[in-house]
Write a structure and sequence with these properties.
The chain has helices at residues 17-26, 38-43, 59-66, 79-90, 102-108, 123-144, 151-166, 170-176; strands spanning 2-4, 7-9, 13-15, 30-34, 44-45, 50-51, 70-74, 96-99, 114-115, 183-185, 188-190. It has 195 residues and is of the alpha/beta class. The longest helix has 22 residues, at 123-144.
C-alpha cells in the first residue's frame, strides 16, 4: 500500500490467465478493459474486452461499464494495466484487478484470442526498426563524417533506458498517431477511442 496524492493505493489483485478464463466461464459479471492502443487491440484481443486506451482512460466510463461486477484491466504485458489501476483507484474506482502478464500471458497460456485479418507491423516492431535504423545511421555518420553524430545513438539509448524503466515510450506514442496506425472506431478513423 502506498500514497498517490491524497489517496491510499493498495496493491492490485493480479489474475493469472487461466484464473481469468475460469472467472469468465463461471458466468460471474467480469468486465474486461483493454488499455492498449487501438492498433494493438485490433491486431489481437480477448473476446469481449472493451477498448479504453490508457491515454484516454475515463474513470466514470470504467465505473459505468463495470457496474457492480469486477473490472479486469488488460494491456500487452501488465505495465500499462498497473498505471491504469493507479489512475482508476485514485479516482475512486473499486473492484479492480489486473491480468498478470497481459495479452502476452493469455496467448502463452494458449487461450483464445480474436485476431484481425488485416496485418500490420506491430507498434513495438515499428519502434525497434526506427531506433535500429537511426542508431546505425548515427554510428556510421559518427565514424565517417563527424564524431558529433555519435549523439544520435546516445540519445536513442537514453530514450530506451527511460522506456524500459518507466514503461512510457514517447516514440511508440508518436507512432500510434501516424496515419498507417489508425483504425476504424465507430465508423471513423482514429488513433485512440473508447468504444
Amino acid at each position: 500500500m502506498w500514497l498517490y496524492g491524497e489517496f491510499v493505493i493498495t496493491n492490485p489483485m493480479k489474475l493469472q490467465a487461466k484464473q481469468l478464463q475460469e472467472e469468465l466461464n463461471s458466468g460471474r459479471r467480469v468486465t474486461l478493459i483493454d488499455v492498449r492502443t487501438p492498433v494493438e487491440h485490433e491486431e489481437m484481443r480477448i473476446a469481449g474486452s472493451r477498448l479504453m486506451p490508457l491515454d484516454r482512460l475515463d474513470p466514470a466510463e470504467v465505473k459505468a461499464a463495470a457496474g457492480a461486477g469486477q473490472c479486469v484491466l488488460i494491456c500487452q504485458s501488465g505495465k500499462r494495466a498497473e498505471r491504469a489501476f493507479e489512475k482508476l483507484q485514485a479516482a475512486g474506482c473499486g473492484n479492480l484487478a489486473i491480468l498478470e502478464g497481459g495479452v502476452a500471458a493469455w496467448e502463452s497460456a494458449d487461450l483464445p484470442l480474436e485476431r484481425s485479418a488485416r496485418k500490420r507491423l506491430p507498434l513495438m516492431r515499428q519502434v525497434q526498426l526506427i531506433i535500429g535504423v537511426l542508431a546505425l545511421t548515427g554510428s556510421i555518420l559518427a565514424l565517417t563524417v563527424n564524431r558529433n553524430f555519435a549523439l544520435i545513438p546516445a540519445f536513442l539509448g537514453a530514450g530506451l533506458t527511460l522506456a524500459g524503466s518507466t514503461g512510457w515510450c514517447g516514440l511508440a506514442i508518436l507512432l500510434s498517431k501516424m496515419p498507417w496506425n489508425k483504425v476504424e472506431c465507430g465508423g471513423r478513423k482514429v488513433t485512440s477511442c473508447t468504444v
